[in-house]
Amino acid sequence: MATPGAERGQWGSRVGFILAAAGSAVGLGNFWRFPYVTGQSGGAAFVVIYLACVALVCLPYLFAELVLGRHTQKNPLGAIRTIRPGSPWVLVGGLCVLTGVFILSYYAVIAGWTFGYIFKNLLFAHLDFGHFIASPWIVIPLFALFLGLTMLVVFGGVEEGIERWSKVLMPLLIGLMIVLIVRSVTLPGAEKGLAFYLKPDFSKVTGEVIVAALGQAFFSLSLGMGAMITYGSYLSRHEDVVVAGSYVALFDTLIALMAGFMIFPAVFATGHDPASGPALVFIVLPEIFQALPLGNLIGALFFLLLSIAALTSTVSLLEVVVAYFVDERRWSRKRSVWVVGALTFLIGLPSALSQGTVAGLSNMDWLFGADGLLGQHDFLSIMDAIWGNLALALGALLISIFVGWVWGADRAAEELRQGSRVGPGLVRVWQFFIRYVCPVVIFIILLNVFRGYLG
Q1: What does the alpha-carbon distance between residue 222 and residue 389 come to, in Å, rounded to a whole number?
Q2: Are 109 and 351 in contact (CB under 8 A)?
Q3: Which of 43, 55, 62, 98 has its CA 20 to 30 A from that of 293?
Q4: What's the number of CA atoms in the CB half-sphere (13 Å) around residue 362?
Q5: 304-325 tens-digit pLDDT
Q6: What confidence score (pLDDT) does residue 4 get?
Q7: Contact status, residue 448 vs residue 392, Cβ threshold 8 Å
Q8: What is the spatial distance between Cα 379 and Cα 352, in angstroms, rounded to a whole number?
């Protein structure tokens, strides 16, 4: 039986960590959620507020997760247990591990759709989205394939698996984005989309827009589920957490902004509504691609890009849970990946079958009543409501309190300064933010999530 130290590994370079951690953050939230939330929230003014939220709230919190992981060299549960052994706070780490496996169970289903859309655009453009996701002969093999690809990367470990593949996937993702951006901004009528995206009209800003920007900024960086604690635990003590974490946030934000340049010019050039909502990527964009020269090829490239982004995120979700079994249960990495992968597949089957395949899973009003559970009616949406929104926000709130008050901002700051050239003034600013600003803002996000579900 392998020892945990031999199985954990460490990042081989700062670049490797930055690409892997940025890959964890970069996912469907950047390409699917950011554009439609921006479209529904008035465009450029929302983007300005979003950028402020990343800088003032998400970045300080990101540093907190990274220093907690590096200080303890453990997964989320092990990190909290190391600092407060035997205390109820260990349940917060357990919540992070559970959140990882449950989000992965349905996220890999959606990721499978994006992978399938590569071939749909090339060979079966006539097949509509509803029939596509309702066919078990399509979605279950795609789900299994995508989960298998994720397991293959995590099998390789930290340096030889996650880091090596991130160095390939992230540059490929950026290259594909640049190709699609050039095509989008050169379409006739694209200037209307660029104006919508770049010229802020602050008269459109409301309290709801500000809260939406907070939520999008926070969830875009994969915060609150322990991924950055786990990735931080593979960092060397000589690494500058402030510099590395800043690059991760910069990378993730840059990808989200690039997604807007890729999508909005095309949406306006073809006369579509930028506020089309969640349907924007899977229904509206394929219609746009079909209206363009070489539309099938452009569509296939776009969904290849989405698949790469989704894979870098599913890898981090699986790694959070695998790290728990390696650290706490003394399992080998190979055994951990097989067991967690198989469990995730079984948990994810109801999500895969809940989009029209099985009536009782596609509409669960028979169990939860006409209002559904948390306002959702199908199994996949219910899972997302519980784990992708509530559990993430709750986990982030509790971790920020733990770092700022239980472990203590002073001790956390000592770890932050380790290997860093950051001055004492900036450290004091960070301590203030992690103690007061981050918990309050995350609590507001959590209240907004509840308000949205409860009507």
Answers
A1: 11
A2: yes
A3: 43
A4: 11
A5: 888 988 888 898 899 999 999 9
A6: 43
A7: no
A8: 9
Instruction: Collapse the DSSP code of 455 into the 3-class scheme (helix H, G, I; strand E, B; otherwise coil) and give the result.
Output: coil
Q: H or E element: which one contains 347?
A: helix 333-352
Question: 437, 446, 441, 398: which is closest to 68 by C-alpha?
Answer: 398
Is residue 279 within a helix (H) or strand (E), and if so which, with residue range?
helix 279-279
pLDDT value of residue 150: 94
Name the 3-class secondary structure at 418.
coil
Best CA proximity match to 200, nearest among 51, 14, 59, 81: 51
Give the integer Cα–Cα distance in Å for 394 and 408.
19
| pLDDT for res 292 | 73
DSSP element (H, E) containing 105: helix 90-123
Residue that the structure tokens 């993730």 belong to: 252
The CATH superfamily assigned to 4-347 is Hydantoin permease (1.10.4160.10)
Rounded distance between C-alpha atoms, residue 310 and residue 298, angstroms: 18
pTM: 0.89
Element (H, E) at 319: helix 295-328
Residues 6+ apart with CB under 8 A from 348: 104, 105, 106, 108, 109, 143, 147
Cβ-proximal residues to 382 (8 Å cutoff; 6+ apart), any chain: 364, 372, 373, 374, 376
**How far apart are alpha carbons 247 and 231 in whole angstroms?**
14
Q: How far apart are the first and last CA of the chain?
A: 51
The residue among 234, 335, 331, 336 whose CA lies nearest residue 2 is 331
147-150: long-range contacts, CB 8 A cutoff, minimum separation 24: 147/104, 147/108, 147/314, 147/341, 147/344, 147/345, 147/348, 148/341, 149/311, 150/104, 150/108, 150/311, 150/314, 150/315, 150/317, 150/318, 150/341
DSSP reduced 3-state for 376: strand
Helices (H) and strands (E) in the chain, counts: 26, 0
With residues binned 3-state (H G I as helix, E B as strand, rest as coil), the percentages for the chain, rounded to 5, are 80, 0, 20
User: Which residue reads 């909290």 in tokens?
Assistant: 80
Give the per-residue pLDDT at 3: 44
93's tokens: 């780490």
Length of the chain equals 455
Q: Among 23-27, 95-99, 265-269, which range has the highest average pLDDT? A: 95-99
Contact by Cβ (8 Å): 240, 421:
yes
Inter-residue contact 405 to 84 (CB < 8 Å): no
Reported as a single tens digit per residue, the pLDDT across 366-398 is 988 888 887 788 999 899 888 888 888 899 999
Q: Which is nearest to 10 in space by CA: 236, 228, 323?
A: 236
